[in-house]
Amino acid sequence: MLWSSPAQAVCVDTPFGELCHQDLDPTPHIPGSADFAEQAWGEAGSAAYQAAANWMRANNGSSQSLDALQKQYLRPHFGDLVDRAAVVYNANLMDELSALGYRIPMNQSAAQTYCDRIYIDDPYQQGDLGQIILLAHELTHSRQCQDYGGAGTFGFHYFREYKRAGQSYENNRLEREAFAFEEQFSAWLDTQSVATSSFSSSPVFDPDFYLMSYGDLRNAFGTNQGAARNHWLTYGIQEGRRSSPAFDVQYYLSFYPDLQNAFSNDYTAAINHWLTYGIQEGRRSSIVFDVQYYLNRYSDLQSAFGAQNYSAAVDHWLTYGVSEGRQGSPDFDPSFYLSNNPDVARVYGASNYKGAIEHYLEFGRAEGRRGTAQ
Q: CB under 8 Å to 230, separation ≥6 — which residues?
């Protein structure tokens, strides 16, 4: 963009022709400018920001709302702004702005924000935590724009702060605020158990089990474990879907009134509770798995782990117990289930105990099939 400064207006040469300040949203005089240069930069920025927003809309594709996982992690910090924001991925970003003879390089940024519309250079990556952190930075600018009262006034302040920072992107006060919050948010995100990159190996998520437990997921993803994990992080957690033989979040909440009172239907909080406290307390976590029952039933496990090493018992059942056909709860015996249901054994195999669990949870209980001999 090239800028000119006529006597009564700041004007911009854009792909739409010349846009002048009076043609855009009016920006009231901002008192307290240190000098004329800062005021001139601010007035230029007011026009520049709005003209750039118009150019970006015209030169990029359609936008999409934040997905469920993005909203889940960003809503505590940005409130309903996450519902209003729209994101354009694979965006055609601007390389620079030029104002009053000074260049503002923009080619170092991975995203650009124009109030509640965010443009990201990369494609949409479902469940990607790095992209969520990037959104936290950009939503900080969206909130700044909201706090300043709109695009024109935000543009004024952004350009004026750029001038005050010695024409430095990193030292611009509004960018410093965004980078500081990005750092805080990234640290906070690390504390959220369900957001860790190693979560696929956690006892609350088994991608094969997740796919086999839901026909709609098998139809959509086949055996794609990565797609299963992304679906669970983005949608499955909030929908309360079963994600592991050892853990059923809806069962966990319904079995314990104290958790129901504390968390209601907050499945994320329930998952975090089980990982942080529930396992150590020996709480039952599924109709097919009760860790205290499992330890008490098998003396070899008590000898190996002790009577209350529930974490080791959970790991043992998932790693060895399921495939060995060990009974994990008083309500379900996989060996009995397969022997008592030859149709299931024919489909899954006579010793496919994990398949027996999957069938019982997806179909057998609803069909009234018995889980144990008693």
A: 126, 127
Tens digit of pLDDT for each residue in 258-299? 999 999 988 888 988 998 899 999 999 999 999 999 999 999
In three-state secondary structure terms, 286 is strand
pTM attached to this predicted model: 0.56
Q: Which two tokens stand for residue 282?
A: 């020996």
pLDDT at 6 over 90: no
**Both structure tokens of 163:** 């001038």
CA distance 63 to 335: 52
CA distances from 310 to 282, 299, 307 (A): 6, 14, 8
If you write DSSP's letter for every residue of 36-101 in order, what string do you get?
A: HHHHHHHHHHHHHHHHHHHHHHHTS---EE--HHHHHHHHHHHTTHHHH-EEESS-----EEEETT
In the chain, where the domains are located: 2-191, 194-331
Residue 226 to residue 224: CA distance in whole angstroms: 6
